[in-house]
Amino acid sequence: MTNIVGKPLPRIDAFGKVTGETLYGGDLSMPGMLHMKILFAHRPHARVVSIDTSRAEALMGVFGVYTSKDVPVNEYGLQWNDQPVLCGPGSRYGEDHAYSTAEEKGRDIVRFVGDQVAVVVAETEALAAQARDLIEVTYEDLPLVTDPEAAMQPGATLVHPEIGPTNICVHDKIRKGDVEAGFAQAEVIVEGEYRVPVQEHAYLQPEAGLAHIDDEGRVVVLAAGQWTHTDQKQIAHALDLHIDQVRVVYPAIGGAFGGREDMSVQIVLALAALKLKRPVKIVWSRQESMFGHGKRHPMVIQARWGATKGGKLVAAENTFIADAGAYMYTTNKVLGNSTITQTGPYFIPNVKADVYGVYTNNLPGAAFRGFGAPQAAFMAESQMNKLAEALGLDPVEFRMRNLISEDLTLDVGTPPPGPVSIGQVITAAAKTAKERYSVEAFTPTTVHGQPSTVRSWGFAAGFKNIGFSFGYKENCWSRVEIHGDGEIEDVVVYSASAEVGQGNHTVLAQMAAEVTGVTLDRVHMVTMDTLNMGNAGSASASRLTFMSGNAVKGASERAFEKWQAEERPAIAEYTYLAPETTPMDKETGYSMPNFAYAYAAQAVEVEVDTETGQVRLVRVISADDVGKAINPAQVEGQIEGGVVQAQGYAIQENFITRDGYVLTDMLSTYLIPTIWDIPESVDSVVVEVPDERGPWGAKGVGELPYLPLAPAIAHAIRNATGVWISEIPFTPERVLKALGRI
Question: Residue 526's CB: how many other CB atoms inside 10 A?
Fold first, then answer.
């Protein structure tokens, strides 16, 4: 053994990325390559009556113009096929499909501004854009549905009349204990309404890719994603191809955060490459990326919680209304996570909750780091801080009196799988705040020389599942080959897992090196390809260190056993099967939804200028239980990155839509944190409580540091100014309104 696991080694992809040798989707090029542009709907709800492409087709240098009638099976979706590839009349569905016309399935209707209507392929990008603008589309505008609360009401215009009689697409319920009896025991009751916003993923690399036909006649799609095999499945379905006729390969991926779970350019690229037998490339503009793809779900949350004077929680009643936008994407799964986490990492004996997802003509709600848990945590942790204040208790002490444990039940009626480390991370965060910054109490202080500026600390915690939930048969495949004669010369690791910037391939290489006893430079990764690789699952749910780590560890151990038995080369495959989970009961929510959880707690210092309303995040202490830090430097990077992204969500990022149109569709109007905005310090407190099922005890960290930040900032603002603000982002206008200044 080489003791490589647990060391902060440099990332194996670092050199290529910093030197520019690594190619991203927008860097790809092939001989004879053509360029694509997409005609977006640019209207939120309308029927496509007709499309005239004649002027575009007549333009010299245009090789193809494609509309709905050119897509063999005009539908796709990560979970079910509720979205057209191209919206318009004349859609087809294949011989065995239950629908035969666009009108029967509503494929002639655009449901948000980013729906795609036509694609143009030409010699140059500029020529493709010129031809796209020559396409004439006749629309019949339909009534708008943009307010999810109104969209729930009987008689509201249906976004998907072909699916059902209501816009409510998700309704999760929790019925645990007797909530009315619980409130009867409560001596303090706190109610609140919380509003959490849309958030743009803002990954550095916009949607981009290239498709071509290989020597075997397969269509090969090179575009960033998070799950190669589901991308392959969706492309094959829409183009009516056998799965083996489609190969998906990921080039370098410039960030994902959940935003690449759903398709964008892949199907239309493959369609054009098949039609023209030429390589075809597309790169979206930043503006196209911001209106053409899904965002974090905005929600309105009503909460009523009760506790005894002794500081014990006794009842909670919550209602969530989430804007699903135009298509399902992952709304049902996101809201499932909101349902699980809506009482926080605490034991509450009596809980009633209704969690709704509602179709509208807004941008689709999509997966985003935390996956429903940040929205729930903002409510739950704010309720905890308000109750602590009402009871006259220290917020840390109040939490410690109500912690969930392996002997107590979550809101779904079953205890969490161990180890449950919420107490350790809360203690670690509070202790670090006291020892490093002398935080004895959450009281305000003034800033020297700035009479209008006050500072204070806030506190919050959170938890999040590791891996897929609700009965999904969670699994992950890997193959390892050991080459050499007398000694090991080369270890080749095959894994389709996506490297989206989080460092997964580096930790997998460390694991393989640890098992086989070689140095890291002798491990070679073959990744992110559907060809001759089994399914690794998605780069989501903080799952890849746990899942792909177990798969690589298992394959490495099997291959090394063969090597020691003198087998040359030594080759082994391994599919890791995670412990089983169960779906929620439709009426009560009862379930064992996850096989592992990770826990986090944060103490934050915030500065508020009471004259301008400006909020500044000064410092953050983030204690995160990762089980085992396979690469501690990468863990710290994930904590720091998660904090900054959550800071944008809480303070700066204000995504504005009106009547279905995006008003903040550029980074000049939608402001994300820069180096001038980040905290003075982020203290990463890495807590390691090993999970015996994880590789070397590891769990995951990708989403954890995001979860507590917004409610911790809200708590700090309260402690500094005396006002609670229950809607994010904490813009200057919102702060000044709360202070009564405007």
Answer: 14
| Percentage with pLDDT > 70 across the chain | 98
Q: What is the dihedral of CA 675, 677, 683, 685, to 10 degrees?
A: -90
User: In this model, does residue 631 exceed pLDDT 70?
Assistant: yes
- Measured distance CA(405)–CA(31) in Å, rounded: 60
Which residues, including other chains, have CB under 8 Å from residue 41's CB and lie 6 or more apart? Answer: 87, 110, 112, 113, 114, 115, 116, 117
**Per-residue model confidence as pLDDT tens digits over 309-333:** 999 999 999 999 999 999 999 999 9
- Report how far residue 528's alpha carbon sits from residue 520's, in angstroms, rounded to the nearest whole number: 20
DSSP strand pairing (313-325 vs 350-359): parallel
Q: What is the pLDDT of residue 101?
A: 52
pTM recorded for the entire structure: 0.97
Mean pLDDT computed over 338-357: 98
pLDDT value at residue 50? 97
**515: its two tokens:** 């098992």
Average pLDDT over residues 383-401: 98
Helix (H, G, I), strand (E, B) or coil at 738: helix
pLDDT of 99 reads 47
Query: For position 662, what pLDDT does the model report?
Result: 98
Give dist(CA 492, CA 251) in Å, integer.
Answer: 19
Domain(s) labelled CATH 3.30.365.10 in the chain stretch across 14-21+469-577, 299-468+586-738
What string of H, E and C letters represents the secondary structure of 150-199?
HHCCCCCCCCCCCCCCCCEEEEEEEEECCHHHHHHHCCEEEEEEEEECCC
Long-range contacts, stretch 670-678, CB < 8 angstroms, 24+ apart: 670/200, 670/202, 670/290, 672/200, 672/202, 672/648, 673/644, 673/645, 673/647, 673/648, 677/647, 677/652, 678/617, 678/644, 678/647
Q: State the average pLDDT over residues 695-713.
A: 97
Residue 282 — φ and ψ, nearest 5°? -145, 145
User: Residue 444 has what pLDDT?
Assistant: 85
Tell me the average pLDDT across 472-481: 97
CA neighbours within 13 Å on the CB side: how many for 319?
6
Which strand (E) or helix (H) includes residue 490?
strand 490-495
Q: Is residue 452 over pLDDT 50?
A: yes
C-alpha dist (Å) from residue 322 to 43, 299, 651, 710: 22, 4, 21, 18
* Over residues 474-484, mean pLDDT: 98
**Can you tell me the distance from the alpha carbon of 70 to that of 53, in angstroms, rounded to the nearest whole number?**
13
SS3 508: helix
CATH 3.30.365.10 correct for 299-468+586-738:
yes
The torsion angle over the Cα atoms of residues 139, 142, 144 and 150, rounded to 10 degrees, is -160
**Bond before 569 cis per omega within 30 degrees:** yes
Among candidates 331, 394, 388, 318, which has minimal Cα distance to 364? 331
The CA distance from 446 to 717, in Å, is 13
| CA distance linking residue 701 with residue 541, whole number of Å | 10
Number of Cβ atoms within 10 Å of the Cβ of 661: 16
Q: How does DSSP assign 438-472, residue by residue?
A: ---S---EEETTEEEEEEEEEEEEEEEESS--TT-
In the chain, residues under CATH classification 3.90.1170.50 are 32-142
CATH topology of domain 32-142: Aldehyde Oxidoreductase; domain 3 (3.90.1170)
Report the C-alpha gap between 324 and 590 in whole angstroms: 24
Q: How many CB atoms lie within 10 A of CB 207?
A: 24
Angle formed at CA 585 by CA 580 and CA 587, multiple of 5 degrees? 170
Instruction: Give the C-alpha separation, 679 to 643, whole Å.
Output: 9
- How many CA atoms lie within 13 Å of 25's alpha carbon, on the beta-carbon side? 30
Token duo for residue 338: 């909101």
Candidates 3.30.365.10, 3.40.50.150, 1.10.8.50, 3.30.450.280; correct CATH number of 14-21+469-577? 3.30.365.10
The per-residue pLDDT of the chain, averaged, comes to 96
